């Protein structure tokens, strides 16, 4: 069972940021539950967790960041997208910097990984905060200019992507589901 | 939250409006009317009819004319949204963008510059499901421009049968017309208090590149 976590304050944003992820999960034939950032969730019931992004002006999920604390001890796989990337970065004590990026940009893959192959991809970005550097707990996997736009948590199958793979890079989500 | 809807009068912006109304107060519609069909961002034909649609919806309309070049049309959009923010106190913008990152990027940047929320409730939706959902809501939709489809489609109503034919040709055409294959006009939908009736029109253009110019239309009881 896959857990999809919405970080959207407004249901109308879920149409844009959660429904496309759910459709990929459903197309791949997996069962799933959708939960919201302000709910307490028993994550041990799930084999994989997908944390979706939200609107550029939406930071309400930061008021409920403690609801994600259990992820630190979670044994399954996690993919954090945009807001989900930011949550994972903070959970592992990394400081986000203000980097506003809207649109399609080239991304360099800097480390082999099971989610995306090749040296370069085009990806759709929509964020205000991201990472330029990481601590020893995170391994950079891809860069957009000076931004670390994809990382893995050392020793865990936790991944963060600052861009939106559901738009131009669906294979990242599909590969994550089949990890 | 008070929002405005980027409104072309076609099926996508009307479906986006319907979804926006479920959650927010729609304080105004914003329509940009390109001077020609060359616009890469905005819907072209019959934007004048939007005035009738807005009257039927009983929602104020901000309408601006823009040229075809991107820079100036985005400036006009910026000014129109700023007016919506200042005059109608909107905090967000709802669009009918489906798949174009080119269009979405530009809308998102302008909203961000104006400190407005941006909502795209049809984003990445399967195009056939959008057409079917509009029909299930009782939308009455006609084709008003074709570019790649036969001009006999102009003036025809979208039906389940046409949606089925589009689905069979998936890969050759974008079923939602996002590739510019066609543009639509909504004559009726659940929020309209009256429906549009077209009484005079003209078809201009060639076989696979033609526009239905509506010369006379009025609102009638549903």
Rounded mean pLDDT of chain A is: 96
The CATH class name of the largest domain in chain B reads Alpha Beta
> What's the Cα radius of gyration of chain B?
16 Å
Question: What distance lies between the first and last C-alpha atoms of chain B, to the nearest angstrom?
Answer: 30 Å
Tell me roughly what share of residues is in helical segments of chain A.
10-25%
Greatest contact between two chains: A-B, 22 and 24 residues
Strand count, sense and barrel status of the largest sheet of chain A are:
9 strands, mixed
Helix- and strand-based class of chain B?
alpha/beta
Percentage of residues in helical conformation of chain B: 25-40%
How far apart are the termini of chain A?
13 Å
Count of domains of chain B: 2
Determine the CATH superfamily of chain A.
Answer: Class I glutamine amidotransferase (GATase) domain
With strands numbered from the N-terminus, the spatial order across the biggest sheet of chain B is: 3-2-1-4-5
Describe what this molecule looks like in 3D.
The complex is a heterodimer of chains A (179) and B (222). Chain A has helices at 11-17, 19-27, 83-91, 165-168, 170-177, and strands at residues 2-6, 32-36, 48-51, 77-81, 97-109, 120-130, 138-144, 147-153, 158-161. Chain A has 179 residues and is of the alpha/beta class. Chain A has a single domain (2-177), classed as Rossmann fold (3-Layer(aba) Sandwich). Chain A has a 9-stranded mixed β-sheet with strand order 2-1-3-4-9-8-7-5-6. Chain B is of the alpha/beta class. Chain B has 2 domains: 2-119, Rossmann fold; 133-220, putative n-type atp pyrophosphatase, domain 2. Chain B has a 5-stranded parallel β-sheet, with helices on both faces. A 4-stranded antiparallel β-sheet of chain B has the order 7-6-9-8, with helices on one face. The two termini of chain B are 30 Å apart.
Describe, in short, the structure shown.
Chain A is of the alpha/beta class and 179 residues long. Chain A has helices spanning 11-17, 19-27, 83-91, 165-168, 170-177, and strands spanning 2-6, 32-36, 48-51, 77-81, 97-109, 120-130, 138-144, 147-153, 158-161.
